[in-house]
Amino acid sequence: MNRRRIRFLSLFVLTLLAQACVATEGPGPEPDNPPADTIDLLPEKVPCTLLTGIPYASDGNPCHLMDVYLPDDSGTFPALLFVHGGGWTGGDRTEFQGMAEFYAKRGIAGFTIDYRIAAPGSPSWPDVILDVITAAEHIREHAAAYRVDPGRMGAVGFSAGGHLASLLGTLSGSGPFPEGLFPADISSSPGPLRLVVDYAGPTDLEFIALQGATSPRYAKILALIETFLGSDYASDPTTWREASPASYVSPGDPVFVIAHGAQDDVVPVATSQTFASMLQDTGVETHLVILEQAGHGFNEQQNLAVRHVLEPIMARLLLR
Fold it and tell me: Low-confidence residues of the chain, pLDDT below 50?
């Protein structure tokens, strides 16, 4: 399996990942206009059609909506499920509208989702991962209507969304859910994914708790996790382990591309380094991209560096 750790240098001013994605829609230089020798990047092929506010569950919950970006082309498309960030306590599906449109124009259908979020005294675990699983299964069940191939699916997430996308990925490769983790009617693992793209996700909550006991660098993410789970690690370590993508790593997991800024002051980069090592040691193909000057979010040039790693993998796993 590929065990590369790829490091990129950048001296550009930081912007949020969501802003970098949306910038692809506006005037000025776009990241899909690279020099002629960058043949590893996916070219724009077709326009796309946007379907907004599609329910992915039948309960009428306004959190259970998605926007769908479909390539204007014939045939069957691969699909990407986009999971927004926001510390599990905010954000919405528009965060990934730019990136979803960007890849739809390159022949990959995109599905950006909302999900239930947490608030102080009102945790969202495990409801939130059930939302993500339900959205993925909705896409599979309606694959013919969306003209997507359920065997060529991936998940993409930023920050808290990176945690949820990674959890979807490691659960999908680990067989049935651990007994008692979810309601009885949710008894089998999600359908398989081919690819997970994790942008700065907190993927090992137990590691974060143990590091946070001695390092103030973890204070921000610890507070968010406690709101998300409704408990601190000392009083409920089992829930912290059950909510961690790292707890379910297995040889059957999809390929992972993990991108993280070395200067991240919300989710320290060591979290992704340890998770990537765990995946690699288990035999999972893993590509870790560390951007030395990036914080919690990447600018256009840093996103371009990630694309040079990600898009050849997309071409191999999703488009061929």
Answer: 1-37
Q: Which pLDDT belongs to residue 178?
A: 63
Structural element, H or E, at residue 67: strand 65-71
pLDDT in tens, 235-268: 999 999 999 999 999 999 999 999 999 999 999 9
Q: How far apart are CA 306 and CA 308, in angstroms?
A: 5
DSSP, residue by residue, 69-131: EEESSSS-EEEEEEE--STTTS--GGGGHHHHHHHHTTT-EEEEE-----BTTB--TTHHHHH
Decide if 32 contacts 102 (C-beta within 8 A). Answer: yes
Q: How many helices (H) and strands (E) does the chain have?
A: 10, 9
pTM above 0.85, yes or no: yes
**Contact status, residue 83 vs residue 161, Cβ threshold 8 Å:** yes
Tokens describing residue 163: 């945690």
Q: What distance, in Å, lies between the first and last C-alpha atoms of the chain?
A: 19
pLDDT the model gives residue 32: 35
Rounded to whole angstroms, how far apart are CA atoms 303 and 308?
9
Domains in the chain, CATH or no CATH each: 5-319 (3.40.50.1820)
CA distances to 29, 126, 225, 230 from 236, in Å: 49, 14, 12, 9
One-letter amino acid at 27 equals: P
Cis geometry, peptide bond prior to residue 126 (ω within 30 degrees of 0): yes
